[in-house]
Amino acid sequence: MKVLTQEESKRITDRIMSLTKADECTVRVTGGRTGNIRYARNNVSTAGLVEDASLVVQVAYGKRQGTATINEFDDKSLEKVVRRAEDLARLAPENPEFMPAVSKQAYKASQTSSRASAAIDPEFRAQTAAYSIEASRKNKLVCAGFFTDSHSFQTVANSNGVFGHQEETSIDFTCTVRTEDGRGSGWVKRSATDVARFDAREASDVAIEKALRSVDAKALEPGRYTVILEPAATSDLIGFMLGGFDARQADEGRSFLSKKGGGTRLGDKLFDAQVNIWSDPWDKDVPVMPWDAGNMLARERMNMIKDGKVSALDYSLFWANKKGVRAIGAPGNMIMGGTDKSTAELIAGTKKGVLVTRTWYIREVDPQSVLLTGLTRDGTFYIENGKIKHPIKNFRFNESPVTMLNNIEAIGKPQVIAGDEVPYSMLIPPMKVRDFNFTSLSDAV
């Protein structure tokens, strides 16, 4: 399946609009190709290329909606998917929260694709895996990794004149390196829109170094410690918290931003003044589509947290209408402000503390306080007098990102991290945090 041009997508969406007899119609067309290579125990295990496309048609008769999907674009198939959506709409009960299709939107293009990423071939993927494997073998280590690259397109349209089309590229790389006896482990993650910003050697070397340095880990008594959290260690924690910025959850008393007795914490200072988090579709490091695919509203730059204060909540189209608030597209990325300091500089300024490479297996304990539990993994180290002194055994932690962002001592340079637990591209800095709560030890490496 080739990536459709804007003209080709427009012909498809126009044809759909001409076929439907419903009161309104929305169309989403997506497709492209995703390449991958996976390796384990210092050998490539799988490699491949997946090509796919999908057409989703949603129609409405009054407040009755029907949705149908197909992956064929000839005229007969287009008519079939329209009729199927219409049949389903006639059978459906009325949706009490139905919102009409949005009016025509002005979409400002964002730089979500790069030619270099679109041109990635099997040789490039093989070379990425080869460096990890060869360097690991040279150091008598065992590695496993997964590299994916994608080149895709997204088209949105509706019967009110909305139309948007844009291409997108991305790469994602993770690598775990372990000692042959399993006593040491290192891990790295890299994500980018433009593969020119990805260095397989640099990334693999990080995992290799952590694996070599993490052997013979010593037990450190659980308790509250000053920690330096690398970007990958904080991205999922903060991602859980950002889910609580949904306005409806806050208004209905279901999130940490709900105020006792009613209302929300909008405008309240809940975090350290150093904390600034915003969404920006046009950010050069984590660009995203200029529309929200769910309701086709145009996105805008949105300050979620400004100087520690809650600055905005995310309103769905229905909830914005109910509350009399102007609706904008839901955020597609999250960016946390930082400084030019490297992780090494944060370590150098720490008298005693713990360096955390990664958090893993995170679960929410209490949504009202965003209390989370999880484990450290793949490289946890004790810091003394500005240097890494020795590896330590992993911990289980019980901590809330709300509390964590109140205990910040220093922030470093942000790094791109694709969210695993949340649907965001994220730009997150390493940070030095006091009183991080480690509750017990874990023997896993």
Plain-language structure description:
It is built from 10 helices and 19 strands. With 445 residues, it is of the alpha+beta class. It has a 6-stranded antiparallel sheet. Strand 5 and strand 6 form a beta hairpin. Helix 4 runs parallel beside helix 5. The model has no long low-confidence stretch (mean pLDDT 96).
Q: Strands, helices and their partners?
A:
Elements: H1 6-19, E1 24-40, E2 43-61, E3 64-70, H2 75-91, H3 115-118, H4 122-138, E4 141-158, E5 163-179, E6 185-192, H5 200-213, E7 223-229, H6 231-242, H7 247-251, E8 277-279, E9 302-306, E10 309-310, H8 317-323, E11 333-336, H9 343-348, E12 352-366, E13 371-384, E14 387-391, E15 394-399, H10 401-404, E16 408-411, E17 415-418, E18 425-428, E19 431-442
The poorly predicted ranges are none
Series of H and E elements: HEEEHHHEEEHEHHEEEHEHEEEEHEEEE
Biggest pleated-sheet summary: 6 strands, antiparallel
**How far from one another are the termini?**
42 Å
Structural class: alpha+beta
Tell me the number of helical segments per DSSP (H or I, 4 or more residues long). 10
**Tell me, what's the shape?**
globular
Q: Radius of gyration from the CA trace?
A: 24 Å
**Helicity, in percent?**
10-25%
Report the count of strand segments.
19
Let me know the average pLDDT. Answer: 96
Q: How are the strands ordered across the major sheet? A: 3-2-1-4-5-6
Please report which band the strand proportion falls in: under 5%, 5-15%, 15-25%, 25-35%, 35-45% or over 45%.
Answer: 35-45%
